[in-house]
Each structure stands twice: as C-alpha cells, then as structure tokens.
Design goal:
By secondary structure, the protein is mostly beta strands. It is built from 7 helices and 20 strands. It has 2 domains: 222 residues, Jelly Rolls, CATH 2.60.120.10; 77 residues, Jelly Rolls, CATH 2.60.120.10. 14% of the residues lie in helices and 40% in strands. The strands form 5 sheets. It has a 7-stranded antiparallel β-sheet, with no helix packed on it. The chain is globular. The mean pLDDT is 96. Its cofactor is Zn(2+). Keywords: Isomerase, Metal-binding, Zinc. This is Phosphohexomutase.
C-alpha cells in the first residue's frame, strides 16, 4: 500500500454548454465564471480531461499518475484485475438551464467497434428541480426503426417519447440504447461508465451564437437505440446510517446514505469508493487524516483505505464497483 494515499478531492473540470446556466455555482459551490456552464466533471480519466488532485501532499498529481504508480491501492484488487489501469467510471454534475438534446449512447460492443471506447450506461440523481421540470426517457410504447425515422423526419419525435416529471431525490437508470434528454430546470448528479460517446438525435433546431446547428448522428444511432419501452425510475429506501441500494449493475453500485452523527465504515480493498455530497456536510476521519466536505463535493477513497469514519449530517451518494 502506498503510504501517501488518503481520501482525494479533485479540481472540477468545468464545461460550457449551449444549454448550461449558473446553478453549479449557486447550488453546488463550483467556481464557474461563465453563465452557460453546463457540466462539472468531478472525477474523470477521459483523454484530455483527466482529473487533478486538489488537496493534500498529492495536490497537482493526475488521477492517471496515481493509478499508474499504485493501481491496486487506488482502484482495488478486483477493479484492477478487471479493468487494468483504467478508471472505469466518470462522475459529473449537470445544470440544464435549457433542454439537452435528445440522445442515445451505444453499448460496449458498438462503442468498442466504432470508437475503441466503453459504452455508456449511466444513472441520474436529481439534486434540484424547478417546478414542472421533466426528463425524456425511452419510448411511450414499443416502437421500431421505421416509426422512429418517420417521426424524426416529421419533427414529431417528442410525441412518441416518454416524458416524466422529476423532483429532487428521483433516480433514473439509463442502460445503453435508451433514448433520453435532461429537461430544463434540473441539476443532476450523473454516474456513468468512462465514455464520452454520445449520439445526438434531435436538438430542437437550436443554433449557437454563430447561427450554427449542432451535429446530429442519426445514422450512427439507428443500431444503438433500444426501441422497446423501458422502466428507468428507481425506488430506494432511506434508512439512516445505512447504504441503501439504489442501482446495482455490472458497471457500478450506487447507494443512498443518509448520515446522522457518526458511521464506522469497513471496506475490503477490492474497489475504490466515491462519495458525492448531495445535501449537508460531513467529515472523513482516517488514520490521522480528517477533512470536511460540503454539498457539491466529491471525494475518492482509495481502495487501500479499508477502515474510516464518516461524521456529520448529510445525504450522500456512495459509489463503488461490485
């Protein structure tokens, strides 16, 4: 085990988006400087967007450097065995001031063949929602390529897609192939496979400041789409000081952890653990290390740290790989 490792925070990687706003600052305390900031990448090893440590003696080191030096200690024995020196997940916060494009992500097989990438199974936790905010997830009824293409051509695609009202605490699990869009007025915590592959189907005929429409990927998407109706919303319990399972899939496990006062945590060393603070604040205490986290913070606990305490009052997402 590397003696240097401790719970790690990273500099947020901020992304301007045509649909972005300012809530990442006002709600989640991110240091944005633009009025159209749509995303804060909290933890990433996507090429060109690799997270850099923000706290402690390892400040300034990239996540890739740390994994390269001590892969077992950072990733965990099981994760390293399965993924090698790849960090398999990507963590983000998103602020949708406007509707995002209607899009779909390819599965592992298609993504590997076409882009030499992982697919993009993902989940959303709704952190904040304006009144009447909604999301688009899948088809209202089972569909097919022909029906889909006809509605796309006629500009009526939205009419055959399922729209769901969203409120804080709602969770949606999107397997690859699910057509989806985050609606205006939502702040979302997103957990996904490490992939930046998105096929854009429809963008509401928007144009950027130069009057250009964004590229669509209609042909690429045809074989990626699941045309059947899907059930995406996840129900979960909220037992205090308990890791309540929200999503448990081959790519990640996400638990909802309502923390009150103190919780002793014990891990196996097989996987890293990530905590995203959704509400309140808490501290991690470990072997002389003590640090505080507030709403909007994300922290990576390396796999080598097997016993630590969480103290405080907070709503936390706990993520790891089973």
């Amino acid at each position: 085990m590397s003696q240097n490792l401790y719970p790690l925070q990273f500099e947020p990687i901020l992304k301007e988006r045509i649909w972005g706003g300012e809530k990442l600052k006002t709600i989640l305390n991110k240091p944005i400087v633009s009025k159209i900031t749509g995303e804060s990448w909290e933890l990433s090893t996507v090429e060109g967007d690799v997270s850099v440590v923000a706290n402690g003696v390892l400040k300034g080191k990239s996540l890739m450097e740390l994994i390269d030096e001590t892969p077992d200690a950072v990733l965990g024995t099981k994760v390293y065995e399965r993924f090698g020196k790849q960090f398999p997940l990507l963590f983000k916060y998103l602020d949708a001031r406007e509707d995002l494009s209607i899009q779909v992500h390819p599965n592992d097989k298609l993504a590997k063949e076409r882009h030499n990438s992982f697919g993009k199974t993902e989940m959303w936790y709704v952190t904040q929602a304006d009144a009447d905010a909604r999301i688009i997830v899948g088809f209202k009824e089972d569909s097919n390529k022909e029906e889909y293409l006809k509605h796309l051509q006629d500009n009526t695609l939205v009419s055959i897609l399922d729209t769901v009202k969203a409120k804080p605490g709602d969770v949606f699990f999107l397997e690859t192939g699910t057509v989806h869009a985050i609606g205006a007025g939502l702040v979302i915590a997103e957990i996904q496979q490490t992939s930046d592959i998105t096929y854009r189907l429809y963008d509401f005929d928007r144009v950027d400041a130069q009057g250009n429409k964004r590229e669509l990927h209609v042909d690429l998407a045809l074989d990626a789409i699941n045309y059947n109706k899907v059930d995406t919303q996840k129900k979960y319990e909220s037992k205090v000081n308990t890791s309540n399972t929200v999503v448990d899939c081959p790519y990640f496990t996400t638990n909802f952890l309502p923390l009150e006062n103190k919780l002793e945590v014990s891990k196996t060393g097989e996987t890293f653990t990530v905590y995203m603070c959704i509400e309140g604040d808490f501290e991690i205490e470990y072997d002389g290390f003590k640090n505080s986290y507030k709403k909007g913070d994300t922290v990576l606990v390396p796999a080598a740290i097997k016993a630590f305490n969480l103290t405080g009052n907070a709503s936390i997402l706990e993520i790891y790989i089973s």
